[in-house]
Amino acid sequence: MKLNVAHVRRSLLTRTATALDEGFPLMREIGWTAITQRARRSVQLLPADAVLAGLSMGVSVVGTLLPERGQTAGVLMLHALADIPDTARPGLPVQVHVGDPDVEFAPPAAVAMWQDSARRMGAQAQVPPVLAPVTSTQTPACRTTTSARQN
Q1: What CATH number does the domain located at 20-126 have?
Q2: At residue 3, does pLDDT exceed 60?
Q3: What DSSP element (H or E) covers 65?
Q4: Cα(19)–Cα(27) distance, rounded to whole angstroms?
Q5: Which 3 state secondary structure label does DSSP give 18?
Q6: Is 112 exposed, middle or buried (0-12, 13-18, 19+ CB in 10 A)?
Q7: What is the pLDDT of residue 103?
Q8: Which pLDDT belongs to residue 104?
Q9: What are the pLDDT digits (tens) for 56-92?
């Protein structure tokens, strides 16, 4: 059995925000073009069939890169949604893990619409249930799954 190797790239931002309300101004300051260019450089070092994963704003980065990476083995979206392009390969496994409810970034109606759209694009779209409901004082809960690919 061969286990997959995880490559974590955190080089997209030279600084990090400590609160949500600091993140958007930081993103605007750096610029979306610069962020996605850094991401493209990072994924060039990865195998073509690497799984792409994004957390929050990183999900939008994954959504931007996905049309360019036709051999991507799968997509993992944490705490946000991104469209599945019509160029995605049929059967592409995609999982979304969001809080329940996440009324600001992934409201239930948007998640349902995303899931329908992703399936129409031919993706194997999954939205596993969360472990616990989110209150205004909690961090969104999500269930993470791990798997090994046999070669």
Answers
A1: 3.40.50.1820
A2: no
A3: helix 57-65
A4: 13
A5: coil
A6: exposed
A7: 86
A8: 86
A9: 889 999 999 999 999 999 999 999 999 999 889 999 9
Element (H, E) at 103: none
Of 121, 124, 39, 24, the C-alpha closest to 80 is 24
Start-end of H helices in 1-56:
20-30, 32-43
pLDDT in tens, 128-147: 887 555 444 444 443 333 33
Domain ranges (residues) in the chain: 20-126
Task: Specify the pTM.
Answer: 0.77
Interior CA angle at 51 toward 73 and 78, to 5°?
Answer: 125
> Which structure tokens are listed for 139?
């961090």
How many residues can be counted in the chain? 151
The type of residue at 106 is A
Asked if 65 contacts 35 with a C-beta cutoff of 8 angstroms, the reply is no
